[in-house]
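User: quick one
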Amino acid sequence: MIELRIHGRGGQGAVVASKTLAQAAFLAGRYVQSYPDYGVERRGAPVVAFARIAEPGDDVFVRQDIKEPHHLLVLDPTLLDSGNPIAGLRDGGWVVVNSPDPPQSLGIVTRFRVATVDATRIAMNHGLGTAAQPVVNTAILGAFVRVTEIVEMDDLLRAITYEVPTMEEENCQAARDAFDSVRTEVAV
Amino acid sequence: MSERLLLTGNHAAAYGAMLARAEVISAYPITPQTMIVELLSEMTASGRLPAKFITVESEHSAMAACVGASAAGARTYTATSGQGLALMHEMLHWAVGARLPIVLTNVSRAMAPGWSIWSDQSDILSQRDVGWMMLFAESVQEAQDFILWTYRVAEQVFLPGMVGMDAFILSHTAEPLIVHDQEAVDAYLPKFDPLYDLDPAEPRAYGGLVNRDHYFEMRYKIYENMDRAGQLLVEAGEEFGEVLGHRYTPLEGFMLDDADYVIVSAGAMTSNIRQAVRDLREEGMKVGLLRVIAFRPFPVDEVRRILTGRTKVAVLDRNMSAGHSGIFAQEIRSAMLGQPDAPPIYGYVVGIGGRDVRVETGHQVLHDLLTREEPELALFVGLKGLPIGPVRKDFEIKPLAPLEVMQ
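Assistant: Done. Structure below.
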Protein backbone atom coordinates (compact mmCIF):
# COMPACT_ATOMS: atom_id res chain seq x y z
CA MET A 1 0.00 0.00 0.00
CA ILE A 2 1.21 3.49 -0.88
CA GLU A 3 0.15 6.35 1.39
CA LEU A 4 0.23 9.94 0.15
CA ARG A 5 -0.33 13.28 1.81
CA ILE A 6 -1.16 16.49 0.02
CA HIS A 7 -0.64 19.91 1.60
CA GLY A 8 -2.26 22.96 0.11
CA ARG A 9 -4.28 26.03 0.91
CA GLY A 10 -8.06 26.31 0.66
CA GLY A 11 -8.95 26.99 -2.98
CA GLN A 12 -5.83 25.43 -4.58
CA GLY A 13 -7.51 22.10 -5.16
CA ALA A 14 -5.71 19.79 -2.70
CA VAL A 15 -8.85 17.75 -2.05
CA VAL A 16 -9.60 17.33 -5.75
CA ALA A 17 -5.92 16.44 -6.31
CA SER A 18 -6.25 13.60 -3.80
CA LYS A 19 -9.45 12.34 -5.43
CA THR A 20 -7.99 12.66 -8.94
CA LEU A 21 -4.85 10.73 -8.09
CA ALA A 22 -6.96 8.02 -6.43
CA GLN A 23 -9.23 7.97 -9.48
CA ALA A 24 -6.22 7.47 -11.78
CA ALA A 25 -5.10 4.43 -9.76
CA PHE A 26 -8.72 3.20 -9.55
CA LEU A 27 -9.06 3.41 -13.34
CA ALA A 28 -5.91 1.29 -13.52
CA GLY A 29 -7.66 -1.38 -11.42
CA ARG A 30 -6.18 -0.62 -8.01
CA TYR A 31 -8.15 -0.38 -4.75
CA VAL A 32 -7.93 3.19 -3.44
CA GLN A 33 -9.09 5.58 -0.77
CA SER A 34 -9.03 9.37 -0.84
CA TYR A 35 -10.11 11.74 1.88
CA PRO A 36 -9.55 15.24 3.20
CA ASP A 37 -8.57 16.29 6.69
CA TYR A 38 -11.35 18.82 6.92
CA GLY A 39 -11.36 21.84 9.04
CA VAL A 40 -14.02 24.38 8.45
CA GLU A 41 -13.16 25.29 4.88
CA ARG A 42 -11.56 28.69 4.41
CA ARG A 43 -9.78 30.04 1.37
CA GLY A 44 -6.06 30.39 2.00
CA ALA A 45 -5.96 28.31 5.17
CA PRO A 46 -3.80 25.17 5.23
CA VAL A 47 -5.62 22.08 3.93
CA VAL A 48 -4.43 18.48 4.08
CA ALA A 49 -5.74 15.61 1.97
CA PHE A 50 -4.75 11.97 1.94
CA ALA A 51 -4.78 9.08 -0.52
CA ARG A 52 -4.09 5.37 -0.21
CA ILE A 53 -3.35 3.16 -3.19
CA ALA A 54 -3.35 -0.59 -2.62
CA GLU A 55 -0.97 -3.03 -4.16
CA PRO A 56 -2.64 -4.81 -7.08
CA GLY A 57 -5.10 -7.40 -5.78
CA ASP A 58 -5.24 -5.97 -2.25
CA ASP A 59 -8.35 -4.29 -0.85
CA VAL A 60 -7.79 -4.03 2.90
CA PHE A 61 -7.56 -0.50 4.21
CA VAL A 62 -7.61 1.22 7.53
CA ARG A 63 -9.38 4.52 8.26
CA GLN A 64 -6.97 6.83 10.04
CA ASP A 65 -4.91 9.91 9.33
CA ILE A 66 -1.72 9.24 7.37
CA LYS A 67 1.17 10.08 9.70
CA GLU A 68 3.97 8.35 7.76
CA PRO A 69 3.32 8.96 4.06
CA HIS A 70 5.46 7.47 1.33
CA HIS A 71 5.31 10.70 -0.69
CA LEU A 72 4.16 14.29 -0.32
CA LEU A 73 2.73 16.96 -2.58
CA VAL A 74 3.06 20.58 -1.47
CA LEU A 75 0.86 22.95 -3.44
CA ASP A 76 2.23 26.14 -1.87
CA PRO A 77 5.96 26.51 -1.00
CA THR A 78 5.20 28.84 1.92
CA LEU A 79 3.71 25.82 3.69
CA LEU A 80 7.28 24.51 4.04
CA ASP A 81 7.98 27.40 6.44
CA SER A 82 5.12 26.64 8.81
CA GLY A 83 3.45 23.54 10.17
CA ASN A 84 6.24 21.20 8.99
CA PRO A 85 4.47 19.29 6.21
CA ILE A 86 7.52 17.03 5.84
CA ALA A 87 6.83 15.46 9.27
CA GLY A 88 6.64 11.68 9.17
CA LEU A 89 7.68 11.33 5.51
CA ARG A 90 9.39 8.00 4.94
CA ASP A 91 13.05 7.97 3.96
CA GLY A 92 13.50 8.10 0.20
CA GLY A 93 10.02 9.57 -0.27
CA TRP A 94 9.35 12.21 -2.87
CA VAL A 95 8.45 15.77 -1.93
CA VAL A 96 6.92 17.45 -4.97
CA VAL A 97 6.64 21.19 -4.43
CA ASN A 98 4.94 23.90 -6.44
CA SER A 99 7.86 26.32 -6.73
CA PRO A 100 9.68 28.23 -9.48
CA ASP A 101 12.98 27.51 -7.71
CA PRO A 102 15.30 24.54 -8.16
CA PRO A 103 14.81 21.67 -5.69
CA GLN A 104 18.21 22.24 -4.03
CA SER A 105 17.14 25.74 -2.96
CA LEU A 106 14.32 24.52 -0.70
CA GLY A 107 16.63 23.26 2.06
CA ILE A 108 14.90 19.88 2.40
CA VAL A 109 17.15 17.25 3.99
CA THR A 110 18.82 14.81 1.66
CA ARG A 111 17.14 11.64 2.89
CA PHE A 112 14.14 12.72 0.84
CA ARG A 113 13.92 13.17 -2.92
CA VAL A 114 12.75 16.62 -3.95
CA ALA A 115 11.13 17.84 -7.16
CA THR A 116 9.84 21.28 -8.04
CA VAL A 117 7.51 22.48 -10.73
CA ASP A 118 6.22 25.98 -11.39
CA ALA A 119 2.61 24.89 -11.17
CA THR A 120 1.40 28.43 -10.53
CA ARG A 121 2.84 29.68 -13.83
CA ILE A 122 1.52 26.62 -15.67
CA ALA A 123 -1.96 27.07 -14.17
CA MET A 124 -1.96 30.75 -15.20
CA ASN A 125 -0.80 29.87 -18.72
CA HIS A 126 -3.91 27.74 -19.07
CA GLY A 127 -6.30 30.14 -17.35
CA LEU A 128 -6.87 27.87 -14.36
CA GLY A 129 -8.08 30.00 -11.46
CA THR A 130 -7.12 33.64 -11.03
CA ALA A 131 -3.81 35.41 -10.44
CA ALA A 132 -4.76 35.74 -6.77
CA GLN A 133 -5.97 32.14 -6.56
CA PRO A 134 -4.46 29.87 -9.19
CA VAL A 135 -5.76 26.29 -9.22
CA VAL A 136 -2.53 24.31 -9.32
CA ASN A 137 -3.71 20.81 -8.52
CA THR A 138 -3.73 19.28 -11.98
CA ALA A 139 -0.33 20.72 -12.84
CA ILE A 140 1.38 19.39 -9.74
CA LEU A 141 -0.18 15.97 -10.33
CA GLY A 142 1.54 15.81 -13.72
CA ALA A 143 4.89 16.45 -12.03
CA PHE A 144 4.11 13.95 -9.28
CA VAL A 145 3.25 11.20 -11.73
CA ARG A 146 6.44 11.87 -13.70
CA VAL A 147 8.78 11.44 -10.72
CA THR A 148 6.96 8.75 -8.71
CA GLU A 149 5.53 6.70 -11.62
CA ILE A 150 2.76 5.54 -9.27
CA VAL A 151 0.26 5.66 -12.11
CA GLU A 152 0.55 6.04 -15.87
CA MET A 153 0.17 9.54 -17.31
CA ASP A 154 -2.68 8.30 -19.52
CA ASP A 155 -4.59 7.17 -16.43
CA LEU A 156 -3.97 10.55 -14.79
CA LEU A 157 -5.32 12.36 -17.85
CA ARG A 158 -8.42 10.15 -17.87
CA ALA A 159 -8.88 10.82 -14.15
CA ILE A 160 -8.53 14.59 -14.63
CA THR A 161 -11.16 14.52 -17.36
CA TYR A 162 -13.42 12.56 -15.01
CA GLU A 163 -12.86 14.57 -11.85
CA VAL A 164 -12.35 18.24 -12.69
CA PRO A 165 -15.63 20.13 -12.86
CA THR A 166 -14.63 22.37 -15.78
CA MET A 167 -11.90 23.16 -18.39
CA GLU A 168 -10.91 19.50 -18.81
CA GLU A 169 -8.57 20.09 -21.77
CA GLU A 170 -6.75 23.01 -20.09
CA ASN A 171 -6.29 20.93 -16.94
CA CYS A 172 -4.92 17.99 -18.94
CA GLN A 173 -2.53 20.30 -20.77
CA ALA A 174 -1.36 21.76 -17.44
CA ALA A 175 -0.60 18.24 -16.22
CA ARG A 176 1.33 17.51 -19.44
CA ASP A 177 3.33 20.76 -19.14
CA ALA A 178 4.25 19.93 -15.57
CA PHE A 179 5.14 16.39 -16.55
CA ASP A 180 7.58 17.86 -19.08
CA SER A 181 9.02 20.66 -16.93
CA VAL A 182 9.42 19.11 -13.47
CA ARG A 183 12.89 19.68 -11.99
CA THR A 184 14.71 17.17 -9.79
CA GLU A 185 18.16 16.93 -8.26
CA VAL A 186 18.81 13.79 -10.26
CA ALA A 187 17.64 12.78 -13.70
CA VAL A 188 14.39 10.80 -13.81
CA MET B 1 -25.80 -3.23 -15.19
CA SER B 2 -24.05 -2.54 -11.94
CA GLU B 3 -21.14 -0.10 -12.07
CA ARG B 4 -18.05 0.28 -9.92
CA LEU B 5 -17.33 3.94 -9.18
CA LEU B 6 -15.02 5.89 -6.90
CA LEU B 7 -17.40 7.81 -4.62
CA THR B 8 -17.59 9.33 -1.15
CA GLY B 9 -19.86 7.98 1.56
CA ASN B 10 -22.11 10.98 1.10
CA HIS B 11 -22.50 10.38 -2.61
CA ALA B 12 -23.00 6.67 -1.91
CA ALA B 13 -25.94 7.61 0.34
CA ALA B 14 -27.43 9.72 -2.47
CA TYR B 15 -27.01 6.74 -4.81
CA GLY B 16 -28.75 4.59 -2.20
CA ALA B 17 -31.75 6.92 -2.20
CA MET B 18 -31.71 6.98 -6.00
CA LEU B 19 -31.57 3.17 -6.29
CA ALA B 20 -34.40 2.94 -3.74
CA ARG B 21 -36.41 5.17 -6.10
CA ALA B 22 -37.23 7.57 -3.27
CA GLU B 23 -40.25 9.57 -4.38
CA VAL B 24 -40.05 12.48 -1.97
CA ILE B 25 -36.88 13.93 -0.45
CA SER B 26 -36.97 16.78 1.98
CA ALA B 27 -33.73 17.85 3.61
CA TYR B 28 -31.78 20.76 4.99
CA PRO B 29 -28.03 21.00 4.40
CA ILE B 30 -25.62 20.63 7.31
CA THR B 31 -21.92 19.81 7.34
CA PRO B 32 -20.80 17.02 6.93
CA GLN B 33 -23.97 15.76 5.24
CA THR B 34 -24.47 18.56 2.69
CA MET B 35 -23.05 16.57 -0.24
CA ILE B 36 -25.94 14.10 0.07
CA VAL B 37 -28.51 16.85 -0.27
CA GLU B 38 -26.56 18.53 -3.08
CA LEU B 39 -26.33 15.39 -5.18
CA LEU B 40 -29.97 14.43 -4.60
CA SER B 41 -30.99 17.96 -5.51
CA GLU B 42 -29.02 17.64 -8.77
CA MET B 43 -30.48 14.20 -9.46
CA THR B 44 -34.04 15.39 -9.00
CA ALA B 45 -33.46 18.61 -10.98
CA SER B 46 -32.02 16.68 -13.94
CA GLY B 47 -34.75 14.07 -13.86
CA ARG B 48 -32.27 11.26 -13.21
CA LEU B 49 -34.24 10.64 -10.04
CA PRO B 50 -37.93 11.33 -10.71
CA ALA B 51 -38.66 12.53 -7.18
CA LYS B 52 -40.04 15.64 -5.54
CA PHE B 53 -37.34 17.54 -3.66
CA ILE B 54 -38.87 19.77 -1.00
CA THR B 55 -36.60 22.53 0.28
CA VAL B 56 -37.34 23.64 3.83
CA GLU B 57 -36.02 26.09 6.39
CA SER B 58 -34.96 23.61 9.08
CA GLU B 59 -34.50 19.95 9.87
CA HIS B 60 -37.67 19.98 11.96
CA SER B 61 -39.58 21.01 8.85
CA ALA B 62 -37.66 18.50 6.74
CA MET B 63 -38.90 15.64 8.90
CA ALA B 64 -42.38 17.18 9.04
CA ALA B 65 -42.44 17.21 5.22
CA CYS B 66 -41.22 13.60 5.18
CA VAL B 67 -44.00 12.66 7.59
CA GLY B 68 -46.60 14.21 5.29
CA ALA B 69 -45.15 12.64 2.16
CA SER B 70 -44.84 9.20 3.73
CA ALA B 71 -48.41 9.42 5.03
CA ALA B 72 -49.46 10.17 1.44
CA GLY B 73 -47.90 6.86 0.43
CA ALA B 74 -44.57 8.03 -1.02
CA ARG B 75 -41.21 6.40 -0.35
CA THR B 76 -39.51 9.18 1.56
CA TYR B 77 -35.87 9.95 2.36
CA THR B 78 -33.88 12.58 4.20
CA ALA B 79 -30.37 13.10 5.53
CA THR B 80 -28.99 15.10 8.41
CA SER B 81 -26.31 15.30 11.07
CA GLY B 82 -25.61 16.39 14.65
CA GLN B 83 -27.61 19.45 15.61
CA GLY B 84 -29.92 18.80 12.65
CA LEU B 85 -30.92 15.39 13.97
CA ALA B 86 -31.44 16.92 17.40
CA LEU B 87 -33.74 19.54 15.91
CA MET B 88 -35.74 16.76 14.22
CA HIS B 89 -36.28 14.98 17.51
CA GLU B 90 -39.96 15.80 17.98
CA MET B 91 -40.79 14.78 14.41
CA LEU B 92 -38.76 11.57 14.76
CA HIS B 93 -41.29 10.52 17.38
CA TRP B 94 -44.08 11.50 15.02
CA ALA B 95 -42.78 9.24 12.25
CA VAL B 96 -42.80 6.31 14.68
CA GLY B 97 -46.24 6.94 16.17
CA ALA B 98 -47.73 7.48 12.72
CA ARG B 99 -46.02 4.23 11.59
CA LEU B 100 -44.24 5.79 8.60
CA PRO B 101 -41.32 3.86 7.07
CA ILE B 102 -39.16 6.91 6.34
CA VAL B 103 -35.43 6.28 5.95
CA LEU B 104 -32.81 8.83 6.87
CA THR B 105 -29.04 8.90 6.76
CA ASN B 106 -27.38 10.52 9.73
CA VAL B 107 -23.76 11.52 9.23
CA SER B 108 -22.70 11.33 12.84
CA ARG B 109 -21.00 14.44 14.14
CA ALA B 110 -20.18 15.69 17.63
CA MET B 111 -22.73 17.86 19.43
CA ALA B 112 -22.08 21.54 20.17
CA PRO B 113 -20.86 23.45 22.03
CA GLY B 114 -17.87 23.51 21.57
CA TRP B 115 -18.74 23.57 17.92
CA SER B 116 -17.45 20.49 16.20
CA ILE B 117 -18.17 18.95 12.84
CA TRP B 118 -16.10 15.82 13.46
CA SER B 119 -16.99 12.21 13.99
CA ASP B 120 -18.82 11.20 17.17
CA GLN B 121 -21.84 8.93 17.61
CA SER B 122 -23.46 10.93 20.41
CA ASP B 123 -25.93 12.56 18.02
CA ILE B 124 -27.54 9.38 16.70
CA LEU B 125 -27.37 7.56 20.03
CA SER B 126 -29.25 10.43 21.66
CA GLN B 127 -32.17 9.19 19.53
CA ARG B 128 -31.90 5.66 20.88
CA ASP B 129 -35.37 5.48 22.38
CA VAL B 130 -37.54 7.17 19.74
CA GLY B 131 -38.39 3.89 18.02
CA TRP B 132 -36.43 4.15 14.77
CA MET B 133 -34.45 1.20 13.49
CA MET B 134 -30.76 2.09 13.56
CA LEU B 135 -27.94 0.61 11.51
CA PHE B 136 -24.26 1.60 11.60
CA ALA B 137 -22.28 1.55 8.34
CA GLU B 138 -18.56 0.82 8.23
CA SER B 139 -17.83 1.47 4.56
CA VAL B 140 -18.95 3.62 1.65
CA GLN B 141 -20.61 0.51 0.19
CA GLU B 142 -22.65 0.03 3.34
CA ALA B 143 -23.63 3.72 3.39
CA GLN B 144 -25.43 2.97 0.11
CA ASP B 145 -26.59 -0.59 0.71
CA PHE B 146 -27.99 -0.10 4.21
CA ILE B 147 -30.51 2.40 2.84
CA LEU B 148 -31.96 -0.37 0.66
CA TRP B 149 -31.79 -2.96 3.47
CA THR B 150 -33.51 -0.55 5.86
CA TYR B 151 -36.35 0.30 3.44
CA ARG B 152 -36.88 -3.43 2.81
CA VAL B 153 -37.58 -4.02 6.49
CA ALA B 154 -39.09 -0.63 7.42
CA GLU B 155 -41.87 -1.04 4.85
CA GLN B 156 -42.78 -4.46 6.25
CA VAL B 157 -43.10 -3.30 9.85
CA PHE B 158 -44.20 0.30 9.16
CA LEU B 159 -41.47 1.80 11.26
CA PRO B 160 -38.81 4.32 10.16
CA GLY B 161 -35.10 3.57 10.07
CA MET B 162 -31.87 5.52 10.15
CA VAL B 163 -28.47 4.63 8.78
CA GLY B 164 -25.52 6.05 10.69
CA MET B 165 -22.32 6.96 8.89
CA ASP B 166 -19.29 8.59 10.52
CA ALA B 167 -18.46 12.20 9.69
CA PHE B 168 -15.57 12.58 7.23
CA ILE B 169 -14.16 9.11 7.97
CA LEU B 170 -16.93 7.82 5.70
CA SER B 171 -18.87 10.84 4.52
CA HIS B 172 -15.91 12.47 2.76
CA THR B 173 -13.85 9.37 2.02
CA ALA B 174 -13.93 8.23 -1.58
CA GLU B 175 -13.49 4.51 -2.14
CA PRO B 176 -14.70 1.99 -4.71
CA LEU B 177 -18.47 1.55 -4.62
CA ILE B 178 -20.61 -0.94 -6.51
CA VAL B 179 -23.71 0.94 -7.67
CA HIS B 180 -26.16 -1.90 -8.11
CA ASP B 181 -28.15 -2.66 -11.21
CA GLN B 182 -31.47 -0.83 -10.95
CA GLU B 183 -33.55 -3.83 -12.05
CA ALA B 184 -31.94 -5.99 -9.41
CA VAL B 185 -32.66 -3.34 -6.77
CA ASP B 186 -36.26 -3.14 -7.97
CA ALA B 187 -36.55 -6.91 -7.50
CA TYR B 188 -35.16 -6.59 -3.97
CA LEU B 189 -37.16 -3.53 -3.04
CA PRO B 190 -40.56 -3.40 -4.74
CA LYS B 191 -42.64 -0.25 -4.77
CA PHE B 192 -43.84 0.92 -1.35
CA ASP B 193 -47.31 -0.44 -0.68
CA PRO B 194 -48.81 1.52 2.23
CA LEU B 195 -51.73 0.17 4.23
CA TYR B 196 -53.34 3.61 4.18
CA ASP B 197 -52.60 6.77 2.26
CA LEU B 198 -53.94 10.27 2.09
CA ASP B 199 -56.73 10.38 -0.45
CA PRO B 200 -59.15 13.32 -0.76
CA ALA B 201 -61.76 10.94 -2.16
CA GLU B 202 -61.64 8.95 1.04
CA PRO B 203 -60.95 11.42 3.83
CA ARG B 204 -59.56 10.21 7.15
CA ALA B 205 -58.12 11.90 10.20
CA TYR B 206 -54.56 11.13 11.32
CA GLY B 207 -52.63 11.94 14.46
CA GLY B 208 -55.63 12.70 16.64
CA LEU B 209 -56.17 12.34 20.36
CA VAL B 210 -55.81 8.79 21.68
CA ASN B 211 -57.40 8.08 25.02
CA ARG B 212 -55.99 6.04 27.84
CA ASP B 213 -57.85 2.99 26.60
CA HIS B 214 -55.95 2.78 23.29
CA TYR B 215 -52.52 4.42 23.53
CA PHE B 216 -50.79 1.57 25.38
CA GLU B 217 -51.87 -0.97 22.73
CA MET B 218 -50.67 1.32 19.94
CA ARG B 219 -47.28 1.56 21.61
CA TYR B 220 -47.20 -2.17 22.24
CA LYS B 221 -47.69 -2.78 18.52
CA ILE B 222 -44.65 -0.60 17.85
CA TYR B 223 -42.67 -2.77 20.26
CA GLU B 224 -43.97 -5.94 18.60
CA ASN B 225 -43.09 -4.73 15.14
CA MET B 226 -39.64 -3.56 16.18
CA ASP B 227 -39.11 -6.99 17.66
CA ARG B 228 -40.18 -8.60 14.39
CA ALA B 229 -37.83 -6.29 12.53
CA GLY B 230 -34.96 -8.20 14.15
CA GLN B 231 -35.79 -11.39 12.26
CA LEU B 232 -36.75 -9.47 9.11
CA LEU B 233 -33.33 -7.79 9.10
CA VAL B 234 -31.72 -11.22 9.07
CA GLU B 235 -33.96 -12.39 6.22
CA ALA B 236 -33.65 -9.17 4.22
CA GLY B 237 -29.87 -9.27 4.75
CA GLU B 238 -29.77 -12.78 3.29
CA GLU B 239 -31.96 -11.73 0.37
CA PHE B 240 -29.58 -8.84 -0.22
CA GLY B 241 -26.86 -11.41 -0.76
CA GLU B 242 -29.00 -13.48 -3.11
CA VAL B 243 -30.21 -10.55 -5.22
CA LEU B 244 -27.44 -7.95 -4.91
CA GLY B 245 -24.38 -9.98 -4.11
CA HIS B 246 -23.46 -9.23 -0.51
CA ARG B 247 -25.09 -10.80 2.52
CA TYR B 248 -25.58 -8.50 5.49
CA THR B 249 -26.19 -9.51 9.09
CA PRO B 250 -27.19 -7.51 12.20
CA LEU B 251 -23.90 -8.52 13.84
CA GLU B 252 -20.60 -9.40 12.23
CA GLY B 253 -17.85 -11.49 13.77
CA PHE B 254 -14.16 -11.56 12.94
CA MET B 255 -11.74 -14.19 14.29
CA LEU B 256 -14.29 -15.04 16.97
CA ASP B 257 -14.20 -18.84 16.84
CA ASP B 258 -11.62 -19.50 19.56
CA ALA B 259 -11.35 -15.94 20.89
CA ASP B 260 -11.04 -15.61 24.67
CA TYR B 261 -11.06 -11.82 24.42
CA VAL B 262 -13.60 -9.97 22.29
CA ILE B 263 -13.63 -6.31 21.34
CA VAL B 264 -16.99 -4.82 20.31
CA SER B 265 -17.09 -1.90 17.87
CA ALA B 266 -19.50 -0.13 15.52
CA GLY B 267 -19.09 2.16 12.54
CA ALA B 268 -16.03 3.19 10.54
CA MET B 269 -13.48 2.86 13.35
CA THR B 270 -14.10 -0.89 13.15
CA SER B 271 -11.82 -1.09 10.09
CA ASN B 272 -8.88 -0.09 12.29
CA ILE B 273 -9.93 -2.35 15.14
CA ARG B 274 -10.13 -5.31 12.75
CA GLN B 275 -6.51 -4.62 11.77
CA ALA B 276 -5.54 -4.42 15.45
CA VAL B 277 -7.17 -7.81 16.05
CA ARG B 278 -5.28 -9.24 13.06
CA ASP B 279 -2.02 -7.85 14.50
CA LEU B 280 -2.58 -9.31 17.97
CA ARG B 281 -3.51 -12.68 16.51
CA GLU B 282 -0.08 -12.66 14.86
CA GLU B 283 1.38 -12.16 18.34
CA GLY B 284 -0.52 -15.26 19.42
CA MET B 285 -3.29 -13.60 21.43
CA LYS B 286 -6.73 -15.14 21.17
CA VAL B 287 -8.68 -11.99 20.36
CA GLY B 288 -11.73 -11.47 18.16
CA LEU B 289 -14.00 -8.67 16.99
CA LEU B 290 -17.78 -8.33 17.21
CA ARG B 291 -19.18 -5.52 15.06
CA VAL B 292 -22.61 -4.19 15.95
CA ILE B 293 -24.42 -3.27 12.73
CA ALA B 294 -28.02 -3.25 13.96
CA PHE B 295 -28.39 -1.18 17.12
CA ARG B 296 -32.21 -1.00 17.00
CA PRO B 297 -33.59 -3.56 17.11
CA PHE B 298 -30.69 -4.73 19.27
CA PRO B 299 -29.80 -8.36 18.52
CA VAL B 300 -29.85 -9.42 22.17
CA ASP B 301 -30.09 -13.20 21.66
CA GLU B 302 -27.27 -13.25 19.14
CA VAL B 303 -25.06 -11.07 21.37
CA ARG B 304 -25.67 -13.49 24.24
CA ARG B 305 -24.86 -16.48 22.07
CA ILE B 306 -21.62 -14.93 20.83
CA LEU B 307 -20.29 -13.45 24.07
CA THR B 308 -21.25 -16.13 26.60
CA GLY B 309 -18.22 -17.99 27.89
CA ARG B 310 -15.57 -15.46 26.74
CA THR B 311 -12.91 -14.47 29.25
CA LYS B 312 -13.31 -10.70 28.87
CA VAL B 313 -15.13 -8.28 26.58
CA ALA B 314 -14.10 -4.71 25.67
CA VAL B 315 -16.74 -2.40 24.22
CA LEU B 316 -15.61 0.67 22.26
CA ASP B 317 -17.81 3.73 22.39
CA ARG B 318 -17.33 6.82 20.23
CA ASN B 319 -19.92 8.48 22.45
CA MET B 320 -20.47 8.93 26.14
CA SER B 321 -23.40 9.22 28.46
CA ALA B 322 -22.03 11.43 31.23
CA GLY B 323 -22.86 9.95 34.61
CA HIS B 324 -22.83 6.37 33.32
CA SER B 325 -20.75 5.00 30.45
CA GLY B 326 -20.54 4.62 26.71
CA ILE B 327 -23.89 3.65 25.23
CA PHE B 328 -22.84 0.50 23.36
CA ALA B 329 -21.25 -0.74 26.59
CA GLN B 330 -24.56 -0.19 28.40
CA GLU B 331 -26.38 -2.20 25.75
CA ILE B 332 -23.92 -5.09 25.81
CA ARG B 333 -23.89 -5.17 29.62
CA SER B 334 -27.67 -5.11 29.69
CA ALA B 335 -27.88 -7.99 27.19
CA MET B 336 -25.42 -10.11 29.20
CA LEU B 337 -26.78 -9.36 32.67
CA GLY B 338 -27.78 -12.50 34.52
CA GLN B 339 -26.61 -14.83 31.75
CA PRO B 340 -24.78 -17.89 33.06
CA ASP B 341 -21.07 -17.69 32.23
CA ALA B 342 -21.32 -14.02 31.21
CA PRO B 343 -17.92 -12.36 30.71
CA PRO B 344 -16.97 -9.13 32.49
CA ILE B 345 -17.65 -6.13 30.23
CA TYR B 346 -15.04 -3.35 30.07
CA GLY B 347 -16.25 -0.05 28.60
CA TYR B 348 -13.75 2.05 26.62
CA VAL B 349 -14.55 5.58 25.45
CA VAL B 350 -12.54 6.61 22.37
CA GLY B 351 -12.44 9.13 19.55
CA ILE B 352 -14.78 11.77 20.98
CA GLY B 353 -15.12 14.78 18.68
CA GLY B 354 -13.29 13.07 15.83
CA ARG B 355 -10.05 12.30 17.65
CA ASP B 356 -8.28 9.72 15.49
CA VAL B 357 -9.11 6.14 16.53
CA ARG B 358 -6.10 4.36 15.07
CA VAL B 359 -4.99 0.76 14.71
CA GLU B 360 -2.65 1.55 17.63
CA THR B 361 -5.69 2.59 19.67
CA GLY B 362 -7.02 -0.93 19.13
CA HIS B 363 -3.66 -2.38 20.25
CA GLN B 364 -3.73 -0.22 23.40
CA VAL B 365 -7.28 -1.18 24.29
CA LEU B 366 -6.68 -4.90 23.75
CA HIS B 367 -3.48 -4.85 25.81
CA ASP B 368 -5.29 -2.95 28.55
CA LEU B 369 -8.14 -5.48 28.46
CA LEU B 370 -5.75 -8.40 28.81
CA THR B 371 -4.00 -6.94 31.86
CA ARG B 372 -6.68 -4.96 33.70
CA GLU B 373 -8.21 -6.91 36.58
CA GLU B 374 -11.51 -5.18 37.35
CA PRO B 375 -14.00 -4.10 34.69
CA GLU B 376 -14.90 -0.41 34.65
CA LEU B 377 -18.00 1.36 33.33
CA ALA B 378 -15.94 3.77 31.24
CA LEU B 379 -12.21 3.75 30.60
CA PHE B 380 -11.07 6.82 28.71
CA VAL B 381 -8.56 6.24 25.93
CA GLY B 382 -6.43 8.95 24.34
CA LEU B 383 -7.02 11.89 26.66
CA LYS B 384 -4.02 14.23 26.63
CA GLY B 385 -1.65 13.52 29.48
CA LEU B 386 -3.72 10.67 30.96
CA PRO B 387 -3.16 6.92 30.68
CA ILE B 388 -6.12 4.65 29.87
CA GLY B 389 -8.21 4.71 32.99
CA PRO B 390 -11.54 5.37 34.68
CA VAL B 391 -12.83 8.81 35.51
CA ARG B 392 -10.60 10.65 38.02
CA LYS B 393 -11.96 11.02 41.55
CA ASP B 394 -9.31 13.38 42.90
CA PHE B 395 -9.70 16.44 40.71
CA GLU B 396 -10.55 19.91 41.98
CA ILE B 397 -13.63 21.78 40.77
CA LYS B 398 -12.39 25.27 40.08
CA PRO B 399 -13.31 28.12 37.79
CA LEU B 400 -11.15 28.90 34.78
CA ALA B 401 -8.45 31.45 35.50
CA PRO B 402 -9.83 34.94 34.80
CA LEU B 403 -8.75 36.56 31.55
CA GLU B 404 -6.29 39.38 31.93
CA VAL B 405 -7.99 42.70 31.31
CA MET B 406 -6.27 45.05 28.87
CA GLN B 407 -5.30 48.29 30.65
